[in-house]
Each structure stands twice: as structure tokens, then as C-alpha cells.
Amino acid sequence: METIHKIAFGGGCHWCTEAVYKSLKGIISVEQGFVASDGEESSFSEAVIVSYEPSDISLEDLILIHLYTHKSTSDHSMRNKYRSAIYTFGPLDVERSTLALQKFQKNFKKPLVTKVLPFREFKVSDKAFQNYYYKNPYKPFCKTHIAPKIKLLLLQFADKVDHIKVLDQ
């Protein structure tokens, strides 16, 4: 078994981001909460920490999925709460993440606002909000905001989706 890798993603609501990554093959765990980085990004912002098996899903795949499942080209007024970011745990991930963003920019008409930032601190979400989508798939928020992201996964990244988990919903 290969070493488990970690990366963190922020962009939209962490309920949404958590559901996206919990729906994929090769994901060991997803921790939902708030991440802080350095400097101007030292305030906490909604995010998830993803532990994954690189032999089952690559960092590039995780990044591409992240870019398509939140508003990665929108510098909207809620960016402090929903920072579009890839939080890295080491220099190799900084390089790989930066190269992936450069590679995937061609897939988007507008410039990506997603930043590669160092992971510094994490605060876990309240237990009541963890695994929110898979505990509450029929709640209006889930049907309106999260289900379309899961549908996008099924359409664009079908080979990466854990169909058993997703189809149980």
C-alpha cells in the first residue's frame, strides 16, 4: 500500500466540498472545517482536508475536480469566507499544484482565482455539520447546491466516482 497523501481545498461551502470528495474513489477521509494559511490568508476560511491514495486518484485529478466544482474563476464578495485555494502540506505539493493550475487554465475562459497556499491551521466543523450531504441528501440546500455538483462528477468524472456510495442516495 502506498503512503496516504493529504491536501486541503477551499472554494465554496465546505458541505459541498466535503460531499464532492467523499464521492470519489481513492479517498481515505475528508475532514470538514476551516483552514488558515499565511499573511493575507491567515484568517480561517471554509475548507476540507482530503486524505487520499495516489495510486487510486492523482493530485491532478483532485485539483481538476476542485476547479470544476466551485466558482474557481469568480473573485466574488464572499472570497474571505470561501477562499478559492489549494492548501499544501509540503514543497512537492506546491510545485505540483502550481503546475496543475497552469495546465488547467486552458479549460476555463476566465482566469482562475484559485491560489496555492501553505496549510497552517485547521479548526474542525461542528459535528452536526460533518458529512452533511450524505446524512441529509433530501434537504433543500443539498438538493439545490450539492446534488448538481455530484451530478457534474457523474457526467465529467464518472471513472473517478465511487458509484456505490453515490447511488445509495
Rounded Rg: 15 Å
CATH class: Alpha Beta
What portion of residues belong to β-strands?
15-25%
The outline comes out as globular
Total count of helical runs of at least 4 residues: 6
Judged by helices, strands and strand pairing, the structural class is: alpha+beta
By oligomeric state, this entry counts as: single chain
Tell me the number of strands.
6
Distance separating the two termini: 30 Å
What is the domain total for the residues? Answer: 1
CATH topology: Peptide Methionine Sulfoxide Reductase, Chain A
Instruction: State the low-pLDDT regions, or none.
Output: none
Proportion of helical residues: 25-40%
Major sheet characteristics: 6 strands, mixed
CATH superfamily: Peptide methionine sulphoxide reductase MsrA
Instruction: Summarize model confidence as the mean pLDDT.
Output: 93
SSE order = EHEEHEHEEHHH
CATH architecture: 2-Layer Sandwich
